[in-house]
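Supplementary Methods. Inverse-folding protocol.

Structures were first reduced to a discrete structure-token string of length 89. This string, shown here, constituted the complete conditioning input.
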């Protein structure tokens, strides 16, 4: 992506599994068999019009103590499995 040019030094990619229209919002970590960490995020927002994606970014930002603007959706705009870029600096 052209907007990401020059930002790779201080960022990391994180895999997510999202549950929209959940009863409660929350976040948990799970470790895959290959040792990688994936966050499971439950949001109360429906998966329509980008509402769930916005809620996912808000929940993750709050959990990590970062501004929402430091988290960018890289892949998975319309699916439950997502990949986000987190700017750490």
């Amino acid at each position: 992506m052209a907007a990401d040019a020059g930002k790779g030094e201080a960022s990391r990619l994180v895999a997510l599994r999202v549950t929209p229209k959940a009863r409660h919002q929350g976040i948990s970590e799970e470790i895959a068999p290959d040792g990688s960490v994936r966050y499971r995020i439950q949001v109360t927002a429906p998966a329509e019009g980008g509402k769930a994606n916005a809620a996912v970014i808000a929940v993750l930002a709050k959990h990590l103590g970062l501004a929402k603007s430091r988290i960018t959706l890289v892949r998975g705009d319309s699916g439950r499995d997502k990949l986000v870029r987190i700017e750490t600096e």
